[in-house]
Amino acid sequence: MTGGSAGRPSLPLVVCYGGTFDPVHLGHLGAVRDVLARTGCEQLRLIPCHVPPHRGRPGASGAQRAAMLRLATAGLEGVRVDPRELERDGPSYTVDTLASLRAEFGEGVALAWVLGTDALAELDRWHDWRRLVALAHLLVLDRPGAPRPEAGAVAELVAARTVSTVAALRGEPAGRIWFVHQRPVPVAATEVRAALASGRRAEHLLPPEVWAYIRKAGLYLADGPATQGATAESE
Description:
The chain has helices spanning 26-39, 62-72, 94-105, 117-120, 132-135, 153-161, 166-170, 189-197, 208-217; strands at residues 13-19, 43-48, 79-81, 110-116, 137-142, 177-181. The chain has 235 residues and is α/β, with parallel strands linked by helices. Helix 2 packs antiparallel against helix 9 (208-217).
């Protein structure tokens, strides 16, 4: 399906970008800027997860990861760090987060959740995954080397719900999929952590404020993360 919802009012658009952000790096910031530029959204919320369902525990505490996100995005208008997953016990399931956001905003706002094509390919492994599009749109970062799914339940969902314009997202609160081309920024958090653990410098991979924070807190060292070495700003 392509196009928009003719005759329907244009809703405010709130885009949510979840992740471990362990740590936030230049690749994350590139994605944030691409999404802001392409969508013109009224608000973009960065949502650091507490316990990621599909990977080990983060190397930095939730408070530290939130603090680094605030430092990295301090100059970006409309961007805020949302700590709701850090304040919730247990695994950080996206469907629970979206249900919480929908309860907060009601049906008068178009919600969109950001994910990459690599994550989209495994969407059917997510907890209660079919409910996601009932709660929000999916805004997919079209990444080189990570093709869109071509067969199976996720491919059928993509074929049925993809739209071609951001106006289509604003036409209804949830239920559509829109692909955004992402300029490649070849940085991964695993690369940053490995560099720091081996004693190599990583400032070329990180916003300068985040690099300074990591050095001061002694994070991601080979002898273990200093998860108590710094405190986050209050929300």
